[in-house]
Amino acid sequence: MNTNPLLAAALALIARGRRVFPCQPGGKRPLGRLVPNGFHGASADSELVAWWWRQVPHANVAVPTGLGTVDVLDVDVKETGSGYPAFNRLKQAGLLPAPLAVISTPSGGLHCYYPGTGQSCGSLPACHLDFKAAGGYVLVPPSTVGGRRYTVLSRPGLTQNQLNWGEVRRFLDPPRPRTVRPASPPQSSGTGIPGLAAWLATQTKGNRNRGLFWACCRAVENGADEADLDQLVTVIVAQGLDEREARRTAADAFRLSGRR
Question: What's the whole-model pTM score?
Answer without folding.
Answer: 0.68
